[in-house]
Every structure is written in C-alpha cells, then in structure tokens.
Design a protein that fits this description.
heterodimer; A: 74 residues; alpha+beta; 2 helices; 32% helix; globular; B: 159 residues; five-stranded parallel beta sheet; 5 strands
C-alpha cells in the first residue's frame, strides 16, 4: 500500500501529486490518500474513477478537521 | 487517446500572474485526465527561454533589444503593481508561505505530466528567437494551422 498526504497541498498540486503517484505504481497496487474536504474530496476520487482506477473506500478520519482517507486501486 | 477530453491553452501574455494561471489550468487539467497542449506566442515565449534572466537573444539590434528588455522566466512582470519587478518575488514568497505551487514547481509538474508545449513560429521569427534558445521540453515550433489542427476537439483558452 502506497501512501500520500495532500492535506498541505493546494490546487492544482492536490490532483498533480495523486496523478503522478498513481503513474509510478503498478496495476493492482493500492494508494492511500489523506485529503481535505471540499475541492480535493469532491474531485480527487472522481477524477481517479474517470481515469479507470477503482476507488475502494472514502472515509472521514474522524478528527473533526475535515480530513478524509481515500483508498484507490490502480 | 481520441476519447480524451482535450484543452489547448494559448499563452500570449508573458505576465507572471497570467503564466501562473495558464500553468495552473494546464497541470490541473492534465492531472484530471485531460490531454493538454500549451501554445506559446509573443510575450508568452519569454516563459520558455533557456536564459531565465535578461539576455541579448536575436540577430539584429531591435530583436536583441526587445529580448533583453523582456527577459526570461525569472523576469516576468506582474500584470499590475509590478513595482519594478519586486512584486513577482514578493508574490512567490506569499505563494510558498501558503503552500501554493510556485511557477518553477508548476513548470516541473507540467513536464512530469507530459503536457505538450508548442512555440509559435511567427512570433519567434519576429523576435529572432530560435528553438535552441527555448527549453528542451518545447516539443515543436509550429504555426497557427498546426495548432488549430491539434486543437480540433479541444476547448481553447486564450491567456
């Protein structure tokens, strides 16, 4: 499982980092992404789906700071 | 690739803030599964020069003077409140402080994402700039017809 925290990134690097990380991975590998609610949460999972990757789960990290954990399978 | 969503950005302005806007849209689009082409013309060519400061490119007095005064990527002016070139530096510091990608980071991301960069043949001729004067990531020097053909099914954005 690969890991990426993009909570300190802003647009457009949120998308860029996820895209480049997925590009480096082999098919079948999984990526755990920690991201903020709002724009990243709305669009990162969606754009991954559009690229043919599978979003396995999206869950609130539960710290009340809006952070979410998304797991994507390449 | 033809089922891809495509966007083409005409980078006409060589203003610091507008080049940042162009690269932000370009990298964001490429990262969200779009095929992206950036076409640099006129002032926009300054962002692609290998020599990032002020240098005497060109073959005659006027082109050399123009290129020297315009400079390269490190001397792009802010479109407003430039204050003799201090503002882009201040702005870059503000961007870093707020975790916003700076222009060099955006350019690096654009290369990593495989964004196509084209330079305008006609503007280069006027300004006496050759392909050797431009960064290696410039794929080709083309004219408007090639740009339009490549952008047939694209959204075209002019900045």
């Amino acid at each position: 499982m690969h890991f990426l925290d993009i909570t300190r990134e802003t647009c457009p690097m949120t998308f860029v980092k996820v895209k480049l990380q997925l590009a480096r991975m082999d098919a079948g590998e999984e990526l755990e992404v920690i991201l903020n609610e709002g724009e990243p949460l709305r669009n990162v999972p969606q754009s991954c789906e559009e690229q043919g990757y599978k979003v396995l789960s999206v869950e609130d990290c539960g710290d009340d700071d809006g952070k979410h954990r998304v797991v994507i399978k390449k | 690739m033809s089922d891809h969503k495509k966007i083409s950005i005409v980078c006409f302005s060589g203003d610091f803030d507008k080049i940042i806007a162009a690269y932000t849209i370009a990298t964001g689009a490429a990262a969200t599964n779009r095929e992206v082409t950036m076409f640099f013309t006129f002032w926009g060519l300054n962002a692609l020069k290998k020599k990032q400061g002020h240098s005497w490119l060109g073959k005659d007095f006027l082109s050399r003077a123009f290129n020297f005064l315009m400079g390269g990527r490190k001397s792009l002016p802010l479109s407003r409140l430039n204050f003799g070139g201090i503002s882009p530096m201040l702005m870059t510091n503000m961007m870093k402080k707020n975790n916003v990608a700076t222009l060099p980071e955006l350019i690096e991301a654009a290369d990593a994402l495989g964004i196509r960069l084209y330079a305008c043949e006609m503007a280069m001729q006027i300004l006496g700039v050759t392909k050797d004067d431009l960064v290696d990531s410039v794929q080709e020097v083309v004219g408007v017809a090639t740009f339009l053909n490549e952008s047939e099914d694209s959204h075209i954005i002019f900045i």
